[in-house]
């Protein structure tokens, strides 16, 4: 089961962000006054995955799917606009994370897959999810289906499809996070809070980059999510790409114009990563994944395996979430340690 790391650093960033908005900080989660929409703010229009969406008022009963999406809402202080969230129970101890008060106040609707019946029962007026982060044509749960029953949707920008089949990704991963923070800030009339978060996150990433390996010192890095016959990994448009590159690594799958996708082990071996990052989540533990990588014969001569340069980040660090900037800082420290 993943442990959700670095709560102190995240709490500090969020506290600084909310303080910068002029809100009262009532706890280390950085929570302040409940955002209130002004009457003259609406209607507002934002562009989401290439579609212009107009809101006549702030949604009041949002259902979110998955941990990163849920914490975007919490980071903006929007739990009072939520009907609840859906996610598996493999996300660690939620009582220790920076947004624990949001989890305490908001109903955990289901630990199973999100579906139309669930959001109808919750009387949702908006579903915040993404392609392969809840929305899926094969299961009949799509923005179009929700529209037919009078429920609006907002797509996670990391999950935007780019027109090449079902390939996802239309912008750099951290830009996707900043885009969603700004869009939702506008939709819920908390733009100052969103801008302060974006500024704080940009500063955190810049500080990590300033200390990160550069030039020829940048190690080749591979993200291992799961899979034994073929590895599931990150392309250029999923969170790990920006986390790796801004931490000072050379992402070996940067030429894949997709977000999360499958490759062959022969490609990994040919590109010889010097560091492997494990995505920690699900029924297979990070230690089990590490043992597999160390014992998988085709990887025996890969530099990261030979030198035991394998690090672990949590799922919520690697999918689009407010934890991405802290993950850059964490990985940058690991890469500096390996280079020393």
From TrEMBL:
Comp. bias (Basic and acidic residues): 28-42
Transmembrane annotation, as ranges: none
Stored InterPro entries: ABC_Transporter_SBP, ABC_transptr_periplasmic_BD
Chain positions covered by the region annotation Disordered: 24-44
SUPFAM superfamilies per record: Helical backbone' metal receptor
Region forming the signal peptide: 1-23
Keyword Signal belongs to the record: yes
Record's keyword terms, sorted: Signal
Family statement: Belongs to the bacterial solute-binding protein 8 family.
Protein name stated in the entry: ABC transporter substrate-binding protein
Provenance organism: Streptomyces prasinus
């Amino acid at each position: 089961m993943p442990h959700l790391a670095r709560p102190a650093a995240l709490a500090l960033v969020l506290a600084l962000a909310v303080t910068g908005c002029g809100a009262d900080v009532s706890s280390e989660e950085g929570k302040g006054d409940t955002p209130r929409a002004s009457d003259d703010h609406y209607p507002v229009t934002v562009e989401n995955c290439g579609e212009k969406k107009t809101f006549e008022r702030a949604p009041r009963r949002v259902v979110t799917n998955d941990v990163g999406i849920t914490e975007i809402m919490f980071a903006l202080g929007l739990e009072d606009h939520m009907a609840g969230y859906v996610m598996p129970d493999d996300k660690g101890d939620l009582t220790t994370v920076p947004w624990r008060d949001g989890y305490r106040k908001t109903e955990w609707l289901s630990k199973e897959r999100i579906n139309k019946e669930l959001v109808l029962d919750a009387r949702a007026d908006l579903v915040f999810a993404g392609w392969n982060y809840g929305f899926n044509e094969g299961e009949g749960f799509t923005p179009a289906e929700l529209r037919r029953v009078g429920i609006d949707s907002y797509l996670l920008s990391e999950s935007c499809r780019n027109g090449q089949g079902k390939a996802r990704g239309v912008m750099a991963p951290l830009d996707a996070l900043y885009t969603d923070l700004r869009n939702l800030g506008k939709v819920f009339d908390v733009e100052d809070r969103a801008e302060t978060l974006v500024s704080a996150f940009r500063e955190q990433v810049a500080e990590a980059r300033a200390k990160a390996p550069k030039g020829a010192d940048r190690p080749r890095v591979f993200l291992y999510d799961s899979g034994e016959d073929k590895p599931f990994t990150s392309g250029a448009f999923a969170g790990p790409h920006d986390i790796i590159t801004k931490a000072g690594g050379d992402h070996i799958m940067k030429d894949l114009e997709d977000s999360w996708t499958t490759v062959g082990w022969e490609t990994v071996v040919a590109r010889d990563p010097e560091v492997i990052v494990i995505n920690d989540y699900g029924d297979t533990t990070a230690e089990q994944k590490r043992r597999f990588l160390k014992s998988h014969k085709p990887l025996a001569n890969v530099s990261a395996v030979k030198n035991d340069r394998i690090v672990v980040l949590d799922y919520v660090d690697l999918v689009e979430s407010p934890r991405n900037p802290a993950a850059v800082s964490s990985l940058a420290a690991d890469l500096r340690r390996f280079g020393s």
